[in-house]
Amino acid sequence: MKKLMNDSRYVVEEMIEGYVKAHPDYIRQLPENDRSLVTTKETREGKVGVLIGGGSGHEPGFLGYVGQGMADGVAVGNIFASPSPDPILEVTKAIDKGAGVAYLYGNYAGDIMNFGMAAEMADLEEDIRVETAIASDDVASAPKEEKEKRRGIAGEFFIYKAAGAAADFGYDLDEVVRVAKKANENTRSMGVGLSPCALPQTGEPSFEIGEGEMEIGLGHHGEPGIEKGPLQTADRVADRLVNDILEDITISKGDRVAVLVNGLGSTPLMEQYIVFRRVEQILSEKGIEIYRSYVGNYITSLEMGGLSVTLMKLDDELAKTIDHPVDCPMFVQK
Amino acid sequence: MKKLMNDSRYVVEEMIEGYVKAHPDYIRQLPENDRSLVTTKETREGKVGVLIGGGSGHEPGFLGYVGQGMADGVAVGNIFASPSPDPILEVTKAIDKGAGVAYLYGNYAGDIMNFGMAAEMADLEEDIRVETAIASDDVASAPKEEKEKRRGIAGEFFIYKAAGAAADFGYDLDEVVRVAKKANENTRSMGVGLSPCALPQTGEPSFEIGEGEMEIGLGHHGEPGIEKGPLQTADRVADRLVNDILEDITISKGDRVAVLVNGLGSTPLMEQYIVFRRVEQILSEKGIEIYRSYVGNYITSLEMGGLSVTLMKLDDELAKTIDHPVDCPMFVQK
């Protein structure tokens, strides 16, 4: 796969450099680690700091979601790899304004280890209280009874948005993390992969898939899904994804949901809206109210082909977080 | 190429249906043509109506740019094909509030014919005054002396933003079109193509390109570029694109520009920011001030691989249009 890059070893550094130069009013690097980015709008005294992070290659996740109404800072890892504890700790120190810091990330072993170490260092060395909410929205990645084993995928967007809003509302650390965990409990995603991406270092495809095939439940680093089969129509794909979600979480007539149709990289908006069309039909037939819809590339996997559908079941508190305005370089909501 | 669709004949209809269902607070269809979309925020009495349009497959262009601060309505064509006069006329009637309507579109024969016919019908049948500004920002598509023959590509985004702001400022029709034309005069784009897209109807690639090759100056429907050669580094590609722009328009030390690095579809944000990094270096070395930067998929060509660089030279009036807030389903600026 062709890449516009200079040296595959420095793609993350060069991306960050370009990103900071493109949006100097929004984002700045911290002095010790060039993988530590924080909002230029100083975190308010007494506001809980919201820290997100994870591997690169998911842009606009995660660095694109630092700004007003979402995260205060991000620690950036290598492509599809967790950031190390040092940048996480540096961001933690920068965004702690006396109220502690909420760590939000997807359920991956490397992230759990590195964010866990950083949290311990923040406590022991800096006396900063850290609490954590881990996203595990991918229905396909473990059985219903073991939600805590599931991967975090596109639903992370809703979880970060909910926590960012809660922190802005002035909630304390326990409350921010409670909201983030509730958002995660209420969020389910199911994806379909059509074509692989390639790591810049190797140029090798992230998974194998035949012409005319699709893979249901594929992870966003190319982790195996639950079923490979012939490519179906957009409507049948939407039926399958929404059906699997609704078998996993009870969403009933009259309930409200936020919907995210998330492109994985190379799938055009046209196809994403065609899939959304069917998602809306299904929910409408069931009397489930769509409170707000997001369609686009929110958490990607480089140039992977495919998309996911995410539903977050809303109560009044989560609906309020969804309505909260956001001003980030890669996502603005009025 | 794999597509998430139902029937290739109805991809545009189904996309529009999904789009309107996803953003009912923003956009609605008019009764006579399902390709006629207007903002739900009623156009102010006495405000110039701003009408954009063109083929589908360029999402978020063009339907994504209907909303406050940009266009009042859009006429949607088939994939890579102009809309017919009927939807254009219907939108014209809906958004005319006594001050006339500005038509903005790219320089393609089909668009010129169809928008021209609609303008004539608006005048003769409805007594609505229409004036037109045609985008022709693609440096590669004709020599400097014949700018009026050039194609419109990603720079259309700046031209629509400038005109939308001018209309919001309360400028009259002549003034809105003057600003749009000035924006076009001051805007230059250069693109590079790495991989083709495929039309849903045929599945055939839009152009041929070898492994390890790139094509400089490729049009955004796959029109031939000016040079095919081996894929170069991101920095050398940026050098070439910016150099060709700066040979075409005088932008001097102390001048201000708006920059757009526009992904064509499947090129990840990571690569777009790596290219932006070098664009910023070049401009900075020349003492050219970047007033505002946009990086992302603003006007695409389905899943085409590659990107373009656009510079718009700013005077105070154009800078003010760039700062103007926008609230559209696919683009929000605070």
From TrEMBL, chains A, B:
PROSITE patterns: DHAK. It comes from Bhargavaea ginsengi. Residues 7-331 form the DhaK domain. GO terms for biological process: glycerol catabolic process. Gene3D superfamilies: Dihydroxyacetone kinase, domain 1, Dihydroxyacetone kinase, domain 2. InterPro entries: DhaK_dom, Dihydroxyacetone_Kinase. One of its GO terms (cellular component) is cytosol. Transmembrane segments: none annotated. This is Dihydroxyacetone kinase, N-terminal domain. One of its GO terms (molecular function) is ATP binding. Keywords: ATP-binding, Kinase, Nucleotide-binding, Transferase. The keyword rRNA-binding does not apply. The keyword Coiled coil does not apply.
